[in-house]
Design brief:
This protein has 2 domains: about 1-35; about 35-135, Nucleic acid-binding proteins (OB fold (Dihydrolipoamide Acetyltransferase, E2P), Beta Barrel). The chain is an alpha+beta fold and about 140 residues long. The protein has a 5-stranded mixed β-barrel. It has helices spanning about 1-30, 90-95; strands at about 35-40, 45-50, 55-70, 75-85, 105-115, 120-135.
Amino acid sequence: MFINRLVFAAHCTFASSKLIIHNLILTSMTTLRNRVQLVGNLGMNPEIVNFESGKKVAKFTVATNESFSDGKGKVTTNTQWHNVVAWGKQAEIAEKHLTKGKEVALEGRLTYRQYEDKNKVSHHITEIVLNNFIVSPVEHKN
């Protein structure tokens, strides 16, 4: 009887540990959902729009580079451009601290939108909505 209780207690402890681990994994996955992190250089000074409501938006681009060499030692650099949108307080901070060429680490979420222009041409846009960013304190010379 004692052994049965011990086995049951061990099983319950194991089961609750599995449940705790499962919940931790789900919580971590939820916080990672639709999350983008980039380190790159600003391709332009932020474009700032002030709305009548008092809201502010900053739009800018960030370039990320990936370099690789082929079998013959030739180095190739592949540059990807990313559209970034910052709202509210983040837009105010971006306006003060971001300038073309500065290195920035950013975190945000991906959004997709589409619109039709006056010529009835459909455009699809992928943007990163900024949550946080850090400007590199080191000036890089190209």
